[in-house]
Amino acid sequence: MTVDHSRAPVLEALDDYRRKGRLSFTPPGHKQARGADPAVREVLGDAVFHGDVLASGGLDDRLTRGRVLQRAQDLMADAVHAEHTFFSTCGSSLSVKAAMLSVAGPHEKLLIGRDAHKSVVSGLIISGIEPVWVEPRWDAERHLAHPPSAAEFDRAFDAHPDARGALVTSPTPYGGCADLQAIADVCHRRSRPLIVDEAWGAHLPFHPDLPSWAMDAGADICVTSIHKMGSGLEQGSVFHLQGDLVPPAVLGMRADLLGTTSPSVLIFAGLDGWRRQMALHGKELMGGALDLAAEVRAAIEEIDGLHVDDRDDFCGPGLSDDLDPLPGVIDLGGLGSPASRRRTGCASTGTSTRIWWTTAVSARRSPTATTGRRPGSCSRRCGTWPWPRGTSRGRRGWRCRRRRGCGWSRRCCRVTRSSARPRTCPWPRRPGGSRRR
């Protein structure tokens, strides 16, 4: 069957809804922006409200006879070489829980890499699944974890032959990748499914110079976050399925059990539009992003004291099996002693002296620098400043001069007894909590 990737069913249905001036007697209550607060409309614009309709009884009829969402999911599956695809508007935190619940039940065992995301731990609590932890490969030099090896999963299955399946995180936020084909082989020799938390790998199917995509490597379920390395909206997640070890009806029911009954059509539209963009122009966009990442790496390498970790640093015995070149880790070790590294404002203990950034894929193929401080401020922080502004140095270390409640005071400063006149700290307030989906 010929598939037309120039079509975008969700976007087309949304455009038709607006052109025909439809107005439903159902939620949402703002009624296409008519009832929204004018001050909110001034900030957000009316387009947000125009795109906020019900998925059934709005975008499609209440019996979903137009199959709008299903057609969009089928196109996504074809684009990434999967057999079945499911959209989620609750982030990959929901998607990975649905995958876990479809593989194992209460008091059953599941092999899980110990570097798993907090949503996996939440899934264990909700489901009652018993985890069998598989240790990642710890990089003592760089103080980070690489994905577990296939041999570790093999040993874990030998020790726990009743385990129902395995879950591995690849790539990591730093770009380290597991040998997914070897891990899938370990699972399939025992007729057990493999779940891959590939939240940071939505871009991988679209260029041959990137690490192997989970579906191509033989994984049974793959979870991706389109808002991370794609151009989807926040909370936009997709999970894919292939093979016969997990029935698609079971996976769909588990997702329905956990998901909202009022999914955001705006997020669906973002997923649908991104799929069309990548299916038509993905190789070109990814090629530009790879070239840009290489240029950024080369430019940073020219700065004295800085080194961008690459394949030679991340891959090898006891390390990752492959590396996604788009994320990057900047090593500050060449700047001197731990005390001098602390003066960059990038570490407070001398044990974590790296700045993480990632090249995100967009229509402009522009990089997003995430240094833990201000985007784009790396060269100012890492070279010449003797002390960060807004701090004072006392006998016991750093003291932030921001008033009580500074989001950084406990993380980057050690409170001293020295008195300092409170003033506004120049560092932005840290977005709280663990890493987002």
Short description:
With 437 residues, the chain is α/β, with parallel strands linked by helices. It is 34% helix and 14% strand. The protein folds into 3 domains: 9-279, Aspartate Aminotransferase, domain 2 (3-Layer(aba) Sandwich), CATH 3.40.640; 284-387, no CATH class; 388-437, no CATH class.
Structure description:
The structure is a single chain. This protein has 3 domains: 9-279, 3-Layer(aba) Sandwich (Aspartate Aminotransferase, domain 2); 284-387, no CATH class; 388-437, no CATH class. It has a 7-stranded mixed β-sheet, with helices on both faces. By secondary structure, the protein is an alpha/beta fold. Residues 339-354 and 359-437 have low confidence and may be disordered. 34% of the residues lie in helices and 14% in strands. The protein is globular, with a radius of gyration of 24 Å.
Which keywords apply here?
Aspartate Aminotransferase, domain 2; 3 domains; 437 residues; 7-stranded mixed β-sheet; single chain; disordered C terminus; 3-stranded antiparallel β-sheet; alpha/beta
